Amino acid sequence: MDIQLTSLHWVYLAFIAFILGLLVKRRDTTLVCVAGIFTLGIIATESLNGSVSGIFNGFIYATKELIGTIFIISIIVAMSRVLIITGINETMVKPLTGFLRTPTLAFWGIGLIMAVTSLFFWPSPAVALIGAVLLPVAIRVGLPALGAAIAMNLFGHGIALSGDYIIQGAPKLTADAAGLPVSGVMEASVPLVIVMGLVTTVVAFWMMRRDMKRGKWNDGLVEGGAGSALGTTAPTVILPERVKKTLAILIPVLFAIDVIAMFRFDLQGGDATALIGGTAVLILIAVTMIAHRNKGLEETTSYLIEGFQFGFRVFGPVIPIAAFFYLGDSAFKDLFGDGLPAGSHGIVNDLGVALANAVPMNGAVASVTLSVTGAITGLDGSGFSGISLVGSIANMFSTAIGGGAATLTALGQVAAIWVGGGTLIPWALIPAAAICGVSPFELARRNLKPVLIGMAVTTVVAMFLV
């Protein structure tokens, strides 16, 4: 079916190209996205009032779509904060320290613990949750501080965040932009996350051991040495040891019950997120009331405020960007009415059909393009701000090649988050680097080759899956 492309399609495509160019230059794209919404509004409505209103309404639309993700992350951060302050986090991971007896065990042990913890708490809070306890143990058995930072970073901000199978913030964003169910993108991402994770971590570990043997290892310590930032996570509320141990057992059990319930009742997407979020709120309230007693009412609010400040600080730049990219699909009609030609299925779908008719596209070309695009969108150091774009492009390319939408979407998501979510961009590496007292630039340099090699292998695997 032929679709007549109009100025709306070409302007949307031009803004995407401009946004990609800015991301390569590591410039902010918020202003350009707002300009894109305004320009599309002018063309569609031929009304200054309609286009100006469309900017605000676009923000509202994007916020409605993202609000569940913002809330779950905010609540998890709030809960993590009270666990750190009370020292419950230390009690939770303390039994695991007995297994970290060699540098090798410490590297893989820290990594695996970080990955599991990050699935429930997200990587940045997880770094604080486990770093204070595991880092001193790792250094004591001979694992360098930078090696511990690499493990926490690759397993947390790489493997766990790129899949995001429990909180489901990342697959929700990409799936919505691609017009796919969240479960489809998650299923398609499993082999890609496994391949990317295995290749990257094995290469990083091998390079670390090789350079240590050759005497070429630079730990990249900053002033204060390894773990200099740990003082910020020291408990300030004293709980009886028996109470801490009880809560340290009960909290993982509650989340384990949530996971069982997800499988038992087939909870996915928003339902699964709501279950985790509700559990986290109850844990936050219970621990706060136990720890602060007569001040518990006020402290509960303080922790929630802290969490929501974090959530909106992280997603503040995402909202205007998402607002623009949602115009490529469902949001356009809601904001600007019937401005597209008859028979149109949305700007992105129309471009996909036109591409299929004009360009000899295949799975290999599409896979390489999605990997590169995902990596470019991650250059802003967020990882999340560009994955709506990745979803839109995956939708467009899958239309052109006649399938593979979920795999291409998942591939772009993996690329964007591994680059921008905190494994290559120095300013996105700060949580892991700070907790280990190492330079984020040295950590980024150490991650570069393993991540690029992992991405190349993952892209080849995706070619066979599309």
TrEMBL record:
Source lineage: Bacteria, Bacillati, Bacillota, Bacilli, Bacillales
Transit peptide is among the record's keywords: no
Protein name, as recorded: Transporter
Transmembrane segments: 6-24, 31-60, 66-86, 98-120, 126-143, 188-208, 247-266, 272-291, 303-327, 415-436, 448-465
Keywords, in A-Z order: Membrane, Transmembrane, Transmembrane helix
